[in-house]
Design goal:
homodimer, 269 residues, mainly alpha, Arc Repressor Mutant, subunit A, Tetracycline Repressor, domain 2, 2 domains, 12 helices, disordered N terminus, DNA-binding
Chain lengths: 269, 269
Amino acid sequence: MNDAAAHTPASPPPTPWERGRPARARVSARTPLSRERVVEAALTVLDRQGLDGLSMRQVAAELGVTVSALYAHVRSKDDLLELMYTRLFDGAALPEPDPERWQEQLRDYARTGRERLLSHRDMARISMAYAPFTAELLPHVEAFLGLLRTAGLPDRIAAEAGDLISTYIDGFVLGETMWRERAAEAAGEDAEDASDHPDVNGMAAEMQDYFASLPESDFPHLHALAGLMVTDSADERFGIGVEIILRGLASYLPDAAAGRTVPSEPGHD
Amino acid sequence: MNDAAAHTPASPPPTPWERGRPARARVSARTPLSRERVVEAALTVLDRQGLDGLSMRQVAAELGVTVSALYAHVRSKDDLLELMYTRLFDGAALPEPDPERWQEQLRDYARTGRERLLSHRDMARISMAYAPFTAELLPHVEAFLGLLRTAGLPDRIAAEAGDLISTYIDGFVLGETMWRERAAEAAGEDAEDASDHPDVNGMAAEMQDYFASLPESDFPHLHALAGLMVTDSADERFGIGVEIILRGLASYLPDAAAGRTVPSEPGHD
DNA sequence: CCTCAGAGGAGAACACTGTTCTCCGAACGC
DNA sequence: GCGTTCGGAGAACAGTGTTCTCCTCTGAGG
């Protein structure tokens, strides 16, 4: 990644006058296509085209290379997707469990987990399909379970809480991004009558209108909650979900009977 | 589905002696390919081949029909997948909210939701990709939110709890089935050395061996919990996850301060 | 300076996929 | 009886992941 060679953006066009040059210059210009570079190019394509537009041919084109060249560094597309996913954990620090601060640590874990999935387009979809622990990620799973166990949770609870929290993070981001993409699609076709409201909030307003149009007698609860679902920021909603889980976990602590240990977040009571 | 015509299984073979018959007989023999029949055939193919083996051509073959005929009744493959998903809700009863029994009702909701996803192969994957409420499912979403709101939960909590529980159900079943499929794959290639342990538990034993092989000093928590994750039945683990969420929700009830309302399930304390 | 082995990318090919186009043939109303 | 309409047939298009063979270009040895 931090090679001395300057980053050659997407394979220099053959530049006819360069054809006669000594071959040596050309080789040093096209850094020799390591596995890292393939993964990086794939992430670039992913961010630009989305998961549905991510094909091996697109990745090859991004590198100015033919498809077959990719298969020398990557076993299959599934393999590539797995590499892309594990790459997100590269610089991640492993939290050292502190029984006194387990709730803050869990909140941090959830927050950084969500940010990781948001760092590249459609990453939540990839995560859902290839999540179950690959060997490289075992240290992260270990550290996470360590947080739960040293907090004093019973083993069975800790084991299932791991699944629960990971699942919630993935699912939340998946819904969050799918909503955004759907909004982008809708904004694309409604280009004409979306003249007065900006692109992003256009969908929100449209959703609110839709819920408002439902017969209130048949859908009183949807009617009451739709405003919240549309209005509240995703960060806020995510925080609430995490808090529900944390409170549930806290109720399993040995001293839970002696009074709630949960230092209730301001504003959600 | 319950047409008077006997269910013709996968398009009767052309039966040479029937070819000479008046065309009228042939038409009544091949029930005219309604949208229902396409969905049903798709579910058959899904159960047999899995989601990756579900192609429009396979569905057409299942019906003894060409691909283009399908597109007269279904807009696209995505449309078909959505129809397959909403079909699972066909006979589902809408629970009437009972504030006294909200916890049992939520448990029931989770249980039937999981069973629904387990009723057809790879349904959890389809659910994750096309879940956000289609119009036909709004009554179910409404009833679900009704359970939470009439229980006395604050609106913001109820709104996010809906997402949380749905996400957990989908994610749990997804992991559950992916594990099973991975075990089936592994059993396929390990056909030789899997001579003494039966197919299904083969993977479990293998996983346990794998976790046992990890350096215990580096992965103490995984070491301690792996047994539970492998040993415990999926039903048990699912129940625990639901219980964690329920306890978290209960802590938001107005009378939660006066003592825990959670009638603790026997065995998980 | 020349030759020779070897690695790595090029290009074509295969078996698929979802979707759409045109066309035919059979059933119905008049 | 004729004409119209509609649903299915079949071929086609553009794209996919993957693999095969071939060729070129590089670096080492003489």
